[in-house]
Amino acid sequence: MLHIGIVACSTEGAALCYRTISLEGARMLGPHDHPQVSLHSHSLAKYMQFVRANDWAGVAELMMSSAEKLARAGADFLICPDNTIHQAFDLVEHRSPRPWLHIAREVTNEARRRNFKRLAVLGTKYLMEGPVYPEALQTAGIDYRVPAKEQRERLDQIIMDELVNARFLPHSLAYYVEVIRSLQEQGCDAVVLGCTEIPLLVTPESSPLPALDSTRLLAKAAVRKAVEG
Q1: 91 and 126 share a domain?
Q2: Secondary structure in 3-state letters for the chain
């Protein structure tokens, strides 16, 4: 089996990804079994300095630093359980010491498999206003919508002040559900949980729309790739 390298950014999203790899490994391979996993993380604070400055080259350098450390640790391929910093992906992929899976492409593959036509995309304001999902979805001919500006600001605040700090509050869940419902009224037939912490707040049972959990979809794709070699 191949060795999975996790280029981590935010703790809660990376932890959910690692946990999912372990659970999916056991499902595919047998009790307590999973591929080798190595994880490296710079602090979220370092990443956010660059993200807030719109310095995606700086983000790319942090990603490359992790990629190089993971390659030396024996990782055969890499994943990053953080949607926002995939905006720097094109600055990393061509010079990376190891190949990557792309989180938005894995979500798009699942949306295509399930025949969804218009996705609501939730995440940080940088993700919702950036090119990561538009580029991935456009290649598959899938339409999308993002929340209104005021909603984007509030969703981002919940992520950065609460979710990345493992705070999952009922009134914040209620707000996410309200936003998802408003996008459902715009014709969306599924919602992308495009921040890796959102699935820790919004569950399939609480979402008005079928949820595409970017964290778990990436982790499951990584296990499949590792097992298939």
Answers
A1: no
A2: CCCEEEEECCHHHHHHHHHHHHHHHHHHHCCCCCCCEEEEECCHHHHHHHHHCCCHHHHHHHHHHHHHHHHHCCCCEEECCCCHHHHHHHHCHHHCCCCECCHHHHHHHHHHHCCCCEEEEECCHHHHCCCHHHHHHHHHCCEEECCCHHHHHHHHHHHHHCHHHCCCCHHHHHHHHHHHHHHHCCCCCEEEECCCCHHHCCCCCCCCCCEEEHHHHHHHHHHHHHHHC
Domain count, the chain: 2
| 85, 16: one domain | yes
Return the CATH number at 45: 3.40.50.1860
Question: What range does the domain containing 46 cover?
Answer: 4-102+217-228
User: Both 81 and 146 in a single domain?
Assistant: no
7-31 pLDDT, tens per residue? Answer: 999 999 999 999 999 999 999 999 9
Shared domain check, 92 and 10: yes
Dihedral sign of CA atoms 132, 112, 9, 128 in order: positive
> Rounded CA gap, 25 and 98, in Å?
22
pLDDT at 124 over 90: yes
Six-digit token string for 56: 């995606």
User: Same domain for 221 and 208?
Assistant: no
